[in-house]
């Protein structure tokens, strides 16, 4: 069986980036942990009419990211460059050089021809080929977008129309095509802005194999090392594991931790591992002219993804639904029902006006109005955000607003009131949506906005942190959402604006980040 010595060597050289020294003692456990840290998206949807039927053309498509780290990617790219050099010297059997805006290609394992002059695309069974290089029993792609659509067509070389769905392929990711995603949707790669390498892997139909073909012994009887942890790989929790669990238990002991617990990692080590596997993007840039000066309006914006797994998200959504029912029964002090295309909102920790009220109260915190305290699960979320280096310990939130969007609901452009300190954050649940940011955002009609310079997708389980220009210069809004969505916005009040009755929550005092620094290399390599 093929031995992944390359992966182990790369792991040794990079130290798996942020994993602590204790993991170095457990090679099998490290492999397990790395497999569990892969992010997997399998629910792609794009509906098109095909042969008179409405079909999800992306059914069967999967995107697996963070499969190869930066060190492994570099080694694979070096190997590809060596192969390119061999091809230029005529040492390889089946090489295509680029014509026009095409790409160069080297084929291994079989020779196949694309359709030409009416001949169908097919495998050339009598053509001999170089075997798979040992390093190519794996895959890498470099950053670009791939377009999908059942009606894709070429307008001119490098320019395509009819593409219904554009999917970014991050470095070190694996795109799996199956079902409609492979058979109904055409796909193409538009002109790439810079050099890119990709490797496409396929299995030959046995009846179409070359006459000289012999199976590679290294690739026979491969099996998943973690076949008994499939549910963990999907970030699901087994029924036995969730029985009688509180939200606090789940936030600390969910499926990822359960698999690690079998390998005798301490609770602190398990939390360390999960925190280090959060993806963090902090280099947002969009330049606009503000008061006569060119400014990066997104400076200070951060997006942290994979902060909450699927089981945690479900438990939190269930808690929010309970709060929504309490609001309907009149059991909460500060709950708003939507008017027009607004969204439902429930305030905790302080009561505030979004804008000047009809009675003349200004926008901001209403110091003499009482409101319900933070729910326990919200305090658990705040604790995680601080401990996992999402929010700084100098700005621990002491209030929140729970937003519940039904289909078609929205939030108009605004800058958050300065009764609240920066940074603040919003956590997304239930369904992904886009947030628009721009210094010139304005309302054309309810749910329709113009002047939005930057559209940012907010994945479920992610945390958007707003600070600097991203909080103070750029307005932000949520256009009409296509389906139900929940978000919770956490803020810290300016002490001078706190309600007169306010008492700090004992559970939120003295929270400190986990005792390590997030290394820049970790942040740089995850996007």
Instruction: Compute the average pLDDT.
Output: 77
Instruction: Report helical residue fraction.
Output: 10-25%
Instruction: Please give the alpha-carbon distance between the first and last residues.
Output: 33 Å
Overall spatial form? elongated
The largest sheet is:
8 strands, antiparallel
**What ranges have pLDDT less than 50 throughout 5 or more consecutive residues?**
1-23, 137-141, 225-246, 252-256, 517-527
Strand content: 15-25%
Write the layout of secondary structure elements.
Layout: H1 5-14, H2 27-36, E1 39-41, E2 47-50, E3 53-56, E4 62-65, H3 70-88, E5 95-96, E6 105-106, E7 112-113, E8 122-123, E9 144-149, E10 153-156, E11 159-161, E12 165-169, E13 174-176, H4 179-183, E14 186-188, H5 230-233, H6 239-242, H7 247-252, H8 255-261, H9 267-276, E15 279-281, E16 287-290, E17 293-296, E18 302-305, H10 310-328, E19 335-336, E20 344-348, E21 352-353, E22 364-365, H11 376-387, E23 399-405, E24 411-414, E25 424-429, E26 433-438, E27 442-445, E28 448-450, E29 454-458, E30 463-466, H12 468-472, E31 475-478, E32 485-491, H13 520-525
Antiparallel strand pairs: 1-4, 2-3, 4-13, 5-6, 7-8, 9-12, 9-14, 10-11, 15-18, 16-17, 18-30, 19-20, 20-23, 21-22, 23-32, 24-31, 25-30, 25-32, 26-29, 26-31, 27-28
């Amino acid at each position: 069986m093929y031995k992944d010595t390359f992966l182990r060597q790369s792991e040794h050289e990079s130290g798996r980036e942020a994993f602590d020294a204790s993991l170095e003692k457990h090679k099998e456990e490290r492999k397990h942990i790395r497999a569990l840290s892969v992010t997997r998206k399998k629910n792609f949807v794009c509906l098109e009419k095909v042969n008179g039927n409405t079909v999800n053309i992306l059914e069967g498509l999967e995107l697996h990211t963070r499969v190869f780290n930066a060190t492994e990617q570099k080694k694979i790219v070096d190997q590809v460059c060596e192969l390119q050099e061999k091809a230029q010297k005529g040492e390889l059997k089946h090489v295509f050089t680029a014509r026009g805006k095409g790409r160069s290609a080297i084929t291994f394992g079989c020779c196949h021809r694309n359709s030409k002059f009416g001949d169908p695309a097919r495998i050339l069974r009598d053509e001999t080929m170089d075997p798979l290089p040992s390093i190519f029993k794996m895959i890498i792609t470099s950053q670009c977008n791939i377009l999908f659509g059942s009606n894709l067509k070429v307008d001119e070389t490098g320019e395509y129309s009819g593409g219904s769905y554009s999917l970014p392929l991050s470095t070190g990711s694996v795109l799996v095509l199956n079902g409609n995603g492979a058979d109904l949707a055409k796909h193409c790669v538009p002109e790439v802005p810079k050099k890119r390498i990709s490797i496409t892997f396929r299995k030959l139909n046995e009846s179409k194999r070359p006459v000289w073909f012999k199976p590679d012994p290294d690739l026979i009887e491969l099996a998943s090392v973690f076949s008994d942890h499939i549910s963990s790989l999907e970030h699901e929790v087994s029924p036995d594991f969730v029985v009688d669990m509180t939200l606090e238990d789940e936030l600390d002991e969910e499926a990822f931790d359960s698999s690690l617990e079998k390998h005798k990692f301490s609770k602190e080590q398990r939390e360390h591992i999960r925190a280090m596997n959060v993806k963090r993007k902090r280099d947002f840039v969009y330049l606009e002219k503000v008061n006569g000066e060119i400014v990066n309006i997104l400076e200070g914006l951060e997006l942290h993804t994979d902060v909450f797994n699927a089981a945690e998200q479900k438990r939190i959504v269930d808690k929010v639904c309970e709060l929504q029912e309490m609001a309907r029964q009149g059991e909460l002090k500060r709950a708003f029902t939507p008017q027009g295309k607004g969204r439902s909102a429930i305030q905790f920790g302080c009561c505030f006006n979004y804008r000047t009220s009809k009675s003349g109260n200004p926008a901001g915190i209403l110091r003499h109005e009482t409101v319900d305290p933070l729910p326990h699960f919200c305090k658990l979320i705040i604790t995680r955000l601080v401990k996992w280096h999402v929010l700084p310990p100098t700005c621990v939130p002491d209030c929140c607003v729970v937003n519940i969007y039904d289909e078609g609901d929205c939030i108009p452009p605004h800058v958050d009131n300065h009764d609240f300190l920066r940074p603040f954050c919003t956590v997304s649940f239930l369904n992904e949506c886009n947030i628009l940011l721009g210094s010139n955002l304005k309302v054309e009609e309810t749910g329709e906005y113009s002047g939005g310079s930057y559209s940012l997708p907010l994945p479920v389980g992610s945390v958007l942190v707003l600070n600097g220009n991203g909080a103070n210069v750029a307005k932000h809004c949520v256009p009409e959402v296509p389906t139900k969505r929940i978000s919770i916005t956490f803020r810290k009040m300016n002490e001078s604006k706190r309600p007169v009755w306010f008492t700090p929550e004992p559970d939120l005092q003295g929270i400190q980040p986990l005792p390590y620094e997030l290394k820049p290399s970790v942040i740089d390599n995850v996007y």
